[in-house]
Amino acid sequence: MSETMIALVTGANKGIGYEIAAGLGGLGYRVGVGARDATRRETAVGKLRAVGVNAFGVPLDVTDDQSVTDAAELIERLAGRLDALVNNAGISGEMDPGWVQDPTALDLEVLRTVVDTNVMGVIRVTNAMLPLLQRSASPRIVNVSSSVGSLARQADPDIEIGPIMAAYAPSKSFLNALTVQYARQFAGTSILINAACPGLVATDFTGFQGPRTPEQGATTAIRLATLPDGGPTGSFFEDDGVVPW
User: Fold this and answer.
1) Which of 20, 18, 19 is nearest to 41 (CA)?
2) 18 is annotated as an active-site residue
3) Is residue 162 within 8 Å of residue 118, measured between CB atoms?
4) Whole-angstrom distance, CA of residue 154 vs CA of residue 152
5) What is the pLDDT along the chain (245 residues), one digit of tens a residue?
6) Catalytic residue among 18, 29, 168, 182
């Protein structure tokens, strides 16, 4: 088995996910680029390899059980274990103008779709990859969340948290709560599990609105994916420190 550290980043063909893959690759990790779209996935792998990253493509639709199972089997064959899993794939769901999701008019199918990707997708991938992670001496799991999932910030009238997003924001609150439950399950083990807020990043996800670059948005996730043994677990971080739940 190779001693090179192995990472999988979901939704890694563009934006923050791509930069997380690039950052881990720059630290010497062999990186699986998880993505649904074959063309975009292989383009991303090619770009990463061109800058010296040891990258490989992982066909992965986080909403599809068989796709997730196949991805785990592929990593098993290619690497034999997994040292870091970054659950980055996520969607906002259909929005009204102004990035609004009105809870009084919310289409429940939109909510189901968002939760299937942003929450259930994380469960599918994490559980499928756990046998591989448990072969690592220092396994790390990072769930890419958002400060809009912070109930403390959402409920504080003195904090500008952005528009009402009745599907996306609660999906990140759900993800944060899930992160805590996984951390509790693996308390006292070598598995460290945390949530990361990338901040408001200018990508196609945000309509290229936001003060932060994808490289800046990737910073916290990269740090959490490479925590030393004995580092924090069951916490929620941004660049400036801990985000309140």
Assistant:
1) 18
2) no
3) no
4) 6
5) 348 999 999 999 999 999 999 999 999 999 999 999 999 999 999 999 999 999 999 999 999 999 999 999 999 999 999 999 999 999 999 999 888 999 999 999 999 999 999 999 999 999 999 999 999 999 999 999 999 999 999 999 999 988 999 999 999 999 999 999 999 999 999 999 999 999 877 555 655 566 688 899 999 999 999 999 999 999 999 999 999 99
6) 168
